[in-house]
Amino acid sequence: MLSPNLFKEVQSQLPDSYKEADDQELSERAWERKRQLGKDLFIPGHHYQKDNVIQFADEIGDSLQLAQGSATNRQASFVVFCGVHFMAETADILTGDDQQVILPDLRAGCSMADMANQNQIERAWEKLIDMFGETIIPITYVNSSAEIKAFVGRYGGATVTSSNAEKILTWAFKQKKRILFLPDQHLGRNTAYRLGIPLEHMRVWDPIYEELEGDQPLDQVQMILWQGHCSVHANFRIEHIQSYRASEPDRNIIVHPECSWEVTQAADLAGSTRFIIEQVKAAPPGSKWAIGTEMNLVKRLKKQYPEQSIDSLNPEMCPCLTMNRIDLPHFVWVLDELYAGRCPNQITVDKKVADEALLAIERMLML
Question: With respect to CATH, is domain 113-230 assigned 3.40.30.10?
């Protein structure tokens, strides 16, 4: 499902010459354009990007790190964001008015971010306030649209990353009795559980039927989890862990907290993308890992640390399909257009939305 935001922007048809060119030709042209554009160009690349694209990145990291890196690079007029739509939105919110953020392919969305939209959250908030009164603070994962971040900022909440979620939720519980966590129910559930919130004190909000799932008494509810998830991390299941436990009990199982509660509980370790990378990097030669996260990153770690045995927790896993919309043909086309004085696929966030979203982001950064 594509975000409604994408239809506000118009993407030109990619010329056939880019589709027909081979990787070597495209790579050589990309290096040349990067040299020609010089300091006017900044290329942030997300960990989940393909190797043939990530090689051109000036900075590699998670979504918020890259948005912050874009904001601190004041020399660059153009930020060609190799990630997905919500990441480019966050970069546009944080960068200056004189900087233009470009997404090489506007189809590079995020299914999780698309699981919560402005109309849904406005209706949900009205019903939840009727149920619980003014006892709720909204918190959103940075993997959400600018409109959702703006809603959270407007009502006193903050954004979170998978790295700082525990710290932000601890702060949020000091503000209000209950948290509405958007849009990834698994990160919300896993984080709250680590903070000591029992599962029976959590209920899921279904945005389609506009109701709370479960029958726990309302006065016991502490976490209201939006019914959203990452389509990649949902593909790691408990049977994958059981298979490794049976065949290779000495293999360390590490997963991302966007995986289900059952999977994170059965794994040896669970943490953010940065946490996974650091654990593998620090491990001694000969260490064995089964990693539950996006396949491009798993393959990259396997190349970077050949002295270790690294597999995907799900051997049939494929890369994130929307992230992989950012490919060499679209990337080179954007660089060619910029060199020719044109700015395609610019991502712009409405000022009112950006201002309110910035409130949520800044509350997180202050903590």
Answer: no
Rounded Cα distance, 48 and 195, in Å: 29
Burial track 147-162 (b if 16+ CB lie within 10 A, e otherwise): bbbbbbbbbebbbbbb
Which of the following CATH numbers is that of domain 4-108+322-350: 3.30.200.20, 3.40.50.10800, 3.30.70.270, 1.10.10.10?
3.40.50.10800
Q: How does the average pLDDT of the chain come out, rounded?
A: 95
Among candidates 331, 306, 362, 335, which has minimal Cα distance to 108?
331
**Residue 73: Cβ-neighbour burial (10 angstroms; 0-12, 13-18, 19+):** middle
Q: Which two tokens stand for residue 204?
A: 């899921």
Tell me whether strands 59-61 and 269-270 are parallel, antiparallel or unpaired.
unpaired
Taking CA atoms, 337 is separated from 73, 156, 182, 236, 237, in Å, by 21, 41, 37, 40, 43
Model pTM score: 0.94
pLDDT digits (tens, 9 = 90+) for 84-128: 999 999 999 999 999 999 999 999 999 999 999 999 999 999 999
The 8-class DSSP code of residue 219 comes to G
Token readout for 54 is 């990530």
Report CA torsion sign: 155, 161, 165, 167. negative
Give me the phi and psi of 212, to 5 degrees please: -85, 130
